[in-house]
Structure formats: C-alpha cells, structure tokens
Amino acid sequence: MIIRIEPDSEVPIYAQLVNSIIEGIVNGRLRPEEPLPSVRRLASDIGIHMHTVNKAYKILEQGGFIQIHRRKGVVIQAARKNEDTGMYIDYLKVTLRPILTGAIYRDISLEQIHSAILEVYHDIVNSGG
Hints:
One of its GO terms (molecular function) is DNA-binding transcription factor activity. By secondary structure, the protein is mainly alpha-helical.
C-alpha cells in the first residue's frame, strides 16, 4: 500500500492519510476485505503518531470505507455505491465550501475551478491498479 504524506502541506496529516486510502480504494489498489495495517504498524511504517492513524481510521470507518474488527483488524469495506448518495453530496458541498470560498477570494474563475476539479478527478480515476 502506497501512502502519500506531505509533512509540509497545509492539509492535516490525518486528512492526507484518509484521502490516500480512499484513493487506493477508488482506483482498485485496495480491494474489499483486504486488510490494512494496524494503527501501530501503519504509524511506525510512515513515521507518524498512532493517534493520527487512529483518527484517520475512525473517519474512514464512519464514512463506510473500512471496518474495524477486534479479531480481523482493519479491512476495506465492500463498496456501497448507491447508498447514501444524497447524504454524501451534502457532505461534499460542505467540504467544498471553504475551498471554493478561497478560490473566489483569489479571483480564480469558475472555468479554472472546473478545470482543476476535472484534472484531479481524471488523475484519481486513471491512476488505477
């Protein structure tokens, strides 16, 4: 599993970890029922604090991306593509609001925003395993 963490990024490390794991699921590098490292192991492997990994795993579990079992450990959850779509769109809007506010403040046009979103979307979709 490849985890990309940029320590100097403005994005918190736990959020980078969440995004990296979700991207791995989306592009097929991480498959349903595939185990993830324990909190302790992943923290050690990438050199971050265990609480940071734990926070990321809790967010992923709440989002339905992983399951945390006492015996199995942490595993990728099977996709629920059509469930909770409306709720996720609402979450997406709330998440995008501060990003778009910053872009508008910097006079970035809607066309530039749209282009950036498409670029990231295609980068994620086309980086599959």
